[in-house]
């Protein structure tokens, strides 16, 4: 089969690999019909995630058609059209029985640090991902769900990570009716978090970024008030000024490890790799939210420490909430919102790229060329 293969930082290409076999009676093999490149895939592409091995296939956002199932699989059959959450989880451990699927204890040798994720380095279990023609799906009775007939492929693939994660970010903010919410980052997660904040009762939604085309999308898609941080001497001071000098009630970090805005933080994190990520967006969140406010962290950071302003957070009495999204837990409510017309997930898709051109897709997305917001990979396109 053809699959995206990692060859080192900033180097990916399409190679022939063996079609993955059934390794366990609970496995399924899925023929991928659409995958996406996630902003967190860029952390792998840029060489920032520990134990990312040459030869790995990335891709934790994908949908497809069931090609084969193991002997124990009861809920799926060949030919089913399925969406697969990025979390790999057993469904029966201490954490899964509490709905904490992202924290499953049985799917990763490093389970005390992180759960299992498709195509996200051996730090996250070493599973190949879905930027390929076929992918092995463990615990097939637990994670995948049959895609409703009314749902499009592009909406479905957005439900495997990006939309649930943005929605989860707003959930963790514990938004009260009328709250002012500031979202750092106008990428896919930030856009969905901003849109979801309205659904949870926000009275004002502000989005911060430095890319004008993404801020424009935040205005048209999420109906947010937007500010370009490069136009202000200190974006935190500006945010205080426009929120009665108290600060926002809720801040959502939808940027994570590769945040721009502070050269020292950026260089020490992404070039020298002395931190698990540049915490500038998170530090802006800490400084700009009001005392006793809430911060939700959806941006991905590496396992190393980062220079977070924890003392400021403590002295302001902030609540910091964070986790990888438990994707499947979000689906029932998101299905309702989509059917009701409140959410149209595929509105943020900007590029559809054949698998053969995935190297160009990574470059395009990484360099923010051609006003790229969300690229989808089509294995069958030519």
TrEMBL record:
<dbReference type="InterPro" id="IPR002328">
    <property type="entry name" value="ADH_Zn_CS"/>
</dbReference>
<dbReference type="Pfam" id="PF08240">
    <property type="entry name" value="ADH_N"/>
</dbReference>
<dbReference type="Pfam" id="PF00107">
    <property type="entry name" value="ADH_zinc_N"/>
</dbReference>
<protein>
    <submittedName>
        <fullName>Zinc-dependent alcohol dehydrogenase</fullName>
        <ecNumber>1.1.1.-</ecNumber>
    </submittedName>
</protein>
<dbReference type="InterPro" id="IPR036291">
    <property type="entry name" value="NAD(P)-bd_dom_sf"/>
</dbReference>
<dbReference type="InterPro" id="IPR011032">
    <property type="entry name" value="GroES-like_sf"/>
</dbReference>
<keyword id="KW-0479">Metal-binding</keyword>
<comment type="similarity">
    <text>Belongs to the zinc-containing alcohol dehydrogenase family.</text>
</comment>
<dbReference type="InterPro" id="IPR013149">
    <property type="entry name" value="ADH-like_C"/>
</dbReference>
<dbReference type="InterPro" id="IPR013154">
    <property type="entry name" value="ADH-like_N"/>
</dbReference>
<keyword id="KW-0560">Oxidoreductase</keyword>
<feature type="domain" description="Alcohol dehydrogenase-like C-terminal">
    <location>
        <begin position="188"/>
        <end position="259"/>
    </location>
</feature>
<dbReference type="GO" id="GO:0016491">
    <property type="term" value="F:oxidoreductase activity"/>
</dbReference>
<feature type="domain" description="Alcohol dehydrogenase-like N-terminal">
    <location>
        <begin position="25"/>
        <end position="143"/>
    </location>
</feature>
<keyword id="KW-0862">Zinc</keyword>
């Amino acid at each position: 089969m053809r699959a995206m293969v990692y060859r080192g930082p900033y180097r990916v290409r399409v190679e022939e690999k063996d079609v993955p076999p059934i390794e366990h009676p609970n496995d399924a093999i899925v023929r991928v019909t659409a995958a996406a490149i996630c902003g967190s895939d860029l952390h792998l592409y840029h060489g920032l995630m520990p134990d990312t091995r040459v030869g790995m296939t990335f891709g934790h956002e994908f949908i497809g058609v069931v090609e084969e199932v193991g002997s124990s699989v009861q809920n799926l059959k060949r030919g089913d059209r399925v969406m697969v959450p990025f979390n790999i989880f057993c469904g029966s451990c201490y954490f899964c029985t509490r709905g904490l699927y992202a924290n499953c204890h049985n799917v990763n040798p490093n389970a005390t640090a992180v759960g299992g994720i498709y195509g996200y380095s051996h730090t996250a279990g070493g599973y190949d991902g879905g930027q390929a023609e076929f992918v092995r799906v463990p615990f097939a009775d637990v994670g995948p769900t049959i895609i409703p007939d009314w749902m499009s492929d592009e909406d479905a693939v957005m439900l495997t990570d990006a939309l649930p994660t943005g929605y989860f970010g707003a959930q963790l903010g514990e938004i009260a009716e009328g709250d002012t919410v500031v979202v750092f980052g106008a990428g896919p997660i930030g856009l969905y978090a901003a849109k979801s904040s309205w659904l949870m009762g926000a009275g004002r939604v502000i989005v911060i970024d430095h890319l004008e085309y993404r801020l424009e999308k935040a205005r048209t898609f999420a109906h947010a008030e937007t500010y370009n941080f490069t136009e202000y001497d200190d974006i935190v001071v500006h945010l205080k000024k426009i929120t009665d000098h108290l600060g926002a009630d809720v801040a959502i970090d939808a940027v994570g490890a590769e945040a721009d805005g502070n050269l020292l933080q950026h260089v020490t994190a992404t070039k020298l790799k002395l931190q698990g990520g540049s915490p500038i967006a998170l530090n802006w969140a800490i400084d700009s939210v009001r005392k006793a406010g809430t911060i939700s962290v959806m941006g991905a950071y590496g396992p190393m420490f980062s220079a977070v302003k924890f003392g400021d957070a403590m002295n302001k009495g902030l609540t910091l909430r964070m986790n990888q999204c438990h994707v499947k837990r979000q689906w029932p409510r998101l299905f309702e919102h989509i059917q009701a017309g409140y959410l149209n997930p595929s509105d943020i898709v900007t590029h559809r790229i054949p698998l053969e051109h995935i190297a160009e897709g990574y470059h395009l997305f990484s360099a923010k060329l051609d006003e790229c917001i969300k690229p989808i990979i089509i294995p069958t396109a030519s």
